[in-house]
């Protein structure tokens, strides 16, 4: 005898399709949730990595800024030391100039002239003295012009006064000191 299916086959088929659909829907929802969760974890990981790189860069920037401050301080200190060195070298170079000046003053001073004051400001020298006559002052001026170490004498003042019955000329001469022959 043939087997007769008394159950309605369309309802059975609809129920199977509905089960497959629900199964496929669950799988799709599960796959979608997994994909979203994986994407979220990936993005969070990328953000965390970027934040770590940002922190590393910021710490390096702070370190470099500290070094720049130190470098600026050292550069300032270096400039101060170089300035001091230049001053010391210049002082060392000009040290024999005072000796030369006094030697030259002895050489150019004619008889009958005495110096009361010698003042130097840089290369400018000012002599204040007493002379027996104006001709002695003129001789001093000629000696200054002939000197290799002194130049450009300028007679700034001459006053004649009697001191103790003797007439004397009080004078002020300004001149420049040079380094003759290119010597330091």
Structural description of this entry:
By secondary structure, the chain is α+β, with helices and mostly antiparallel strands. The protein has 2 helices and 4 strands, in the order αββαββ. Strands 1-2-4-3 form a 4-stranded antiparallel sheet. A hairpin with a 2-residue loop joins strand 3 and strand 4 (about 165-175). The longest helix is centred in the N-terminal third of the chain and has 100 residues, at about 10-110. It is rod-shaped, with a radius of gyration of 52 Å. It starts with 8 loop residues before the first helix and ends in a 7-residue tail after the last strand. The model has no long low-confidence stretch (mean pLDDT about 85).
The tally of beta strands, per DSSP, is 4
Q: Quick check: average pLDDT?
A: 86
Straight-line N-to-C gap: 139 Å
Task: Determine Rg (CA atoms, Å).
Answer: 52 Å
Beta-strand proportion: 15-25%
The SSE string, one letter per element, is HEEHEE
What is the oligomeric state here? single chain
Per the principal axes of the C-alpha atoms, what is the gross shape? rod-shaped
Strand order of the largest sheet: 1-2-4-3
Largest sheet: 4 strands, antiparallel
Structural class category: alpha+beta
Contiguous runs where pLDDT drops below 50 for at least 5 residues: none
**Please, how many helices?**
2
Helix content: 55-70%
Which characteristics define this entry?
184 residues, single chain, rod-shaped, 2 helices, alpha+beta, 4-stranded antiparallel β-sheet
In short:
By secondary structure, the protein is an alpha+beta fold. Helices cover 61% and strands 23% of the residues.
